[in-house]
Amino acid sequence: MRGNCYLAAQPDVLHKQLSGFSCSLLVRQLQRCFRHPLQRFVEHVFFLVSEMPEAVLSDEHYILFGRIAYGYAAAETGFKLLLAAMTKTDIGLMMVLSEPYTAKQLRDVVQSIAHASTFDGKNEKDQLIGLLGEHKRLTPIRTAVAHFRWTNGTRENSIRPVSLDIRSGKAIPRGYEDSERDYTVDDLVTLANDMFKLNNDLRNFIRKNGYEDILEASIQSKDQDDD
Asked: In a 3-state reduction of DSSP, which class is residue 21?
């Protein structure tokens, strides 16, 4: 039964393994694992997945996915380094302390520290809040790239992420409506470039406002202690 539930929780796998059987058999398979009202929901999701074709992704798609995912992670590392400099904390220790943070938690901590700090540079706090806002704006595409499957989009040569959203406390399928956002290759190029720009802007912010010097001094002090 555990194996059956595993398949029912992954309708695409179930569809492949039972593709020669009737729809009624598939429904009965789902009914063995799920009771009302979840049963009806799983049947609905299975129908959506089985009827919706998987997008054919090109090498260009995968390259752009990689650029987006890597750029997002690189920005997170940049914010952790900035946090170490702002709090004058050992870099290695900050990396350990901040490792459990989600991206949202990391942004919240950096923003809270920013509001509690006094800055020397004009508009420095506003610039930092802007960088955090840009990282937040780019979160949906990174999440889609890292976690979701993709189907064909509404526009020509576009693709759309599909997922199951449970954040509201209700399980809601996303990406199955023609009105939901899709992405062309050009859209993904723009977002990948936005991610690259965010990292450049964050590096420039760290350098321009003296945080790089603080980080370098911390590294040198650590090296002397090790000696």
From this structure: coil
Q: Strand 159-165: give its sheet, edge to edge.
A: 149-152, 159-165, 172-174
Separation in Å, CA 90 to CA 26, 78, 87, 97, 165: 56, 15, 9, 10, 38
- Model confidence over 122-169: pLDDT tens digits? 799 999 999 999 999 999 999 999 999 999 999 999 999 998 888 788
pTM, 2 dp: 0.74
Helix spans in 99-210 (H)? 103-115, 124-137, 139-147, 185-208
3-state secondary structure at position 138: coil
Taking a C-beta distance cutoff of 8 angstroms, is the pair 202, 110 a contact?
no
The residue count for the chain: 227
Q: Within its chain, how far is the Cα of 146 from the centroid? A: 6
Distance from chain centroid for Cα 181: 16
Task: Please tell me the predicted confidence (pLDDT) of residue 1.
Answer: 38
For 20, half-sphere exposure in the C-beta direction (CA atoms, 13 angstrom radius) is 1
